[in-house]
Amino acid sequence: MSAPAERRTFRIAAIPADGVGVEVVAAGRAVLDALASASGGAFAFDWTEFPWGCGYYEKTGRMMDDDGLEALRDFDAIYFGAVGWPTVPDHVSLWGLRLRICQNFDQWANVRPVHFHPGVVPPLRKADHTELDWVVVRENSEGEYAGFGGRNLAGRGPGNEVALQTALFTEKGCERIMRFAFDLARTRTRRKVSSVTKSNAQQYGMVLWDEVFARVARDYPDVETESVLVDAMSAKFVLRPEDLSVVVASNLNADILSDLGSALAGSLGLAASANLNPERRFPSMFEPVHGSAPDIAGQGLANPIGAIGSAALMLDHLGLPEEAERLRKAIDATTGAGVLTRDVGGSATTDQVVAGVIERLGL
Ligand SMILES: NC(=O)c1ccc[n+]([C@@H]2O[C@H](COP(=O)([O-])OP(=O)(O)OC[C@H]3O[C@@H](n4cnc5c(N)ncnc54)[C@H](O)[C@@H]3O)[C@@H](O)[C@H]2O)c1
């Protein structure tokens, strides 16, 4: 993620959307604004907040404005909360906002670090933040979430409708995400890429994926590789996570595996992610992995670490790697000091964690 031109005021579109998304985006913004105001004018964030989400849908019949993509196009980045609420069908809310942005802005690489934090007791017996640390690289533009298919034959009467949901695998789509994963592996202590498929059962798309992986791997002789079926990889996440560095997988498989990873690290609320358009033709989008958590929304219980970690990924992307590292250290110092929300065994509120991180930024 290299630095853009010299501009130091970053225009960021904030889309908190629904449920705890509102709370965690406010948390991330507070931390980023604290960093900016302590930078002595070196950089600043110019925020524009968009009201889109399920509440907007109930009022207007749309998850976002018709010209919403045009409105977003010129921002330096998008900072996203979570979309979904019980009053709107999940496929309507997800496709109407988050997937619409990801797909139209060709954010084809979704980076989801599985990071273990000091002070958080994870369910894995062998887990230790000093030795476990891996990244899930998710193909974010096609695969099982390509949106191809249809429903028909309901006219034949009750019980006769059929639905097709087709996964799309292109050589180009496979190759670009694999090169991204290999390039990322070269920046890490352990240079290894694990490719995940279910190519024993899915003999077209995923066999193509395997073949492209073998071909791309030949260009990276310094990077260790393995190909693992998704069922075996889910077991490996639990039993041998120390053997992982970069895990590259299709849209659905990586979505599931990264939730497993964040749960193993202690909570869904901890996991950060970046939806990248690596060519920078469009803004990239940074968001916690978790959803809108209707069960705890509005109570000050949301863990903001995933959203704050996503803000650190955004700083990397904006060309502020030192600030990103400072923020990551402040997050770890906060969890290490036992300032933890309820989902990770503590009693701190969202605001107390935010205050803890700001206090430890060393400003
Ligand atoms: N990227 C997204 O916008 C996204 C991702 C996943 C789900 N969703 C949507 O979110 C809604 C709820 O989905 P779900 O319940 O399957 O998943 P969820 O991630 O919202 O919640 C799953 C569990 O994790 C907990 N949790 C999630 N985030 C937390 C946080 N920050 N702090 C503490 N605990 C947290 C919740 O309380 C819940 O028990 C649905 O409408 C779904 O479509 C959106």
UniProtKB/TrEMBL annotation:
<protein>
    <recommendedName>
        <fullName>D-malate dehydrogenase (decarboxylating)</fullName>
        <ecNumber>1.1.1.83</ecNumber>
    </recommendedName>
</protein>
<dbReference type="InterPro" id="IPR024084">
    <property type="entry name" value="IsoPropMal-DH-like_dom"/>
</dbReference>
<dbReference type="InterPro" id="IPR011829">
    <property type="entry name" value="TTC_DH"/>
</dbReference>
<feature type="domain" description="Isopropylmalate dehydrogenase-like">
    <location>
        <begin position="11"/>
        <end position="357"/>
    </location>
</feature>
<comment type="similarity">
    <text>Belongs to the isocitrate and isopropylmalate dehydrogenases family.</text>
</comment>
<dbReference type="GO" id="GO:0000287">
    <property type="term" value="F:magnesium ion binding"/>
</dbReference>
<dbReference type="GO" id="GO:0051287">
    <property type="term" value="F:NAD binding"/>
</dbReference>
<keyword id="KW-0479">Metal-binding</keyword>
<keyword id="KW-0464">Manganese</keyword>
<keyword id="KW-0560">Oxidoreductase</keyword>
<dbReference type="InterPro" id="IPR019818">
    <property type="entry name" value="IsoCit/isopropylmalate_DH_CS"/>
</dbReference>
<dbReference type="GO" id="GO:0046553">
    <property type="term" value="F:D-malate dehydrogenase (decarboxylating) (NAD+) activity"/>
</dbReference>
<dbReference type="InterPro" id="IPR050501">
    <property type="entry name" value="ICDH/IPMDH"/>
</dbReference>
<keyword id="KW-0520">NAD</keyword>
<dbReference type="Pfam" id="PF00180">
    <property type="entry name" value="Iso_dh"/>
</dbReference>
